[in-house]
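Worked example

This section walks through a single chain of length 131. The input is the sequence exactly as stored; nothing has been trimmed or padded.
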Amino acid sequence: MSDRPQDPRHQRGLELMNEIDPADGGRMLDEFATIAPDLGRFLVEFAFADIYGRSVLSLRERQFVRLAALAAMGIGGAPMRANINSALNVGVPVSDIAETFIQCLPYAGFPRVITAVEQLKAIVAERADQD
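Given that input, the structure is written out below as tokens.
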């Protein structure tokens, strides 16, 4: 499902996804392959190749946008975890991720920001246990 080497757009998207978070990206594509393979293709080609692969914002800036959008919408669970891990994987410091969530307070409110910070705290603890 995730191998479409003849499609340069798909290849670009896979390369960017693997740069940011190969474990979660690959896991999602495998999960989608059994029930909704087109969803994986859309994720790779549209989200990563077309949108995330644009050159206007830096990779670091893109991480902040993703995290702020998820926090503002109150999205937790696997999507938030994957994006926190992605930010950490590309070198965004924990303090900058926390500050991103704090900046969402006026727009998203305390419950959503607290939920996001709790997920950040859990991921930091998990990563510390793995070291």
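What to look for: The two ends are 33 Å apart (CA to CA).
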